[in-house]
Specification:
Blueprint: H1 15-23, H2 42-50
Length: about 70
């Protein structure tokens, strides 16, 4: 979801989370749709890559999209 790039809930954003997003690419899986646009794509994986090593939670709204989490 747009508030949390820690897809597997292990306490930090890692490559395993990026891999989970890539596996969900083309779907509308809300857990992997980090930018809240209704579809999981490479932009969501890029956002997770930007958050590598960080704690779970909201990130900066770099896409300029309306997002209730920010």
């Amino acid at each position: 979801n747009a508030c949390d790039a820690d897809i597997n809930n292990d306490g930090s954003v890692g490559l395993d989370d990026v891999a989970a997003i890539l596996e969900a690419r083309g779907s509308a899986a809300p857990a992997a749709d980090l930018n809240g646009d209704g579809a999981v794509g490479l932009d969501d994986a890029a956002e997770a890559l930007n958050r590598l090593g960080t704690a779970p939670g909201p990130g900066p709204d770099t896409c300029g999209l309306a997002n209730p989490c920010f």
